[in-house]
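note to self: dont lose this again. the chain is below, predicted strucutre after it. 269 aa total, dont forget to put it in the shared folder this time
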Amino acid sequence: MTSRAARPIGTVTRGTTNPNRLRRMDRWIAAAHGPELRRAADPVAVDLGYGAAPWTAVELLGRLRTVAPHARVVGIEIDPARVQAARPYEREGLTFRHGGFEIPLPQRPLLIRAANVLRQYDEEQVAAVWERLCARLAPAAGPSRGGLLVEGTCDEIGRRHVWVALGPEGPRTVTFATRLGSLERPSDLAERLPKALIHRNVPGEPVHAFLRDFDRAWAAAAPYASYGARQRWMRTVRDLTADWPVTDGPARWRQGEVTVRWDALAPGS
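---
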């Protein structure tokens, strides 16, 4: 007798998606994780919870292939109707599967991107989801640090985005990314903090202190606004490095990004 397939782990999301919504995250992934993808014999990436339309998975394949021509993308959705709707978009290197946090693939992927998936979950559930997903990543071996989980949140058209990057060992960094022309102050990004941090933006928590210092540095860099928002942002981030463990440099700052070590922003007890 054939056993019934295991039920996917997770709950159906709203499914809201828009073309080009995840461009900032994708650009960062290509820059930060491109060497790992290029070295792999079969670099598989997962777009987890891509939503009611497959645009983000289609775009992810195109962006990854600029740095890793043999990359493959598997879109995974917990709603079977969304999987069926996406099937006409399958092509060489792009497939869609029904599933959830269990990541129903025979191999461990080198990348799992989970954008706007955990917003509907409780903060207390995040650690278990992260642990489950990290356990499915390709392990570290030799020069490879292993796979990467990128989990975060953005607005509907991708102007503001914050994500956490995790390896098989757990959280590594937090990245803040924005279209600089839309920003009044850096703390505007607080509304896009991922679920693990969004309720921790209160006095006494590290992420609150970081955003406070970010706003102060932004105010101090006001004279640079005459040279444009990019120059003001870059000066602001440069000043932040005096007190916060920023892990990237001017090439990424110019993109409207800044990446900070996770342990500096991790929630207190």
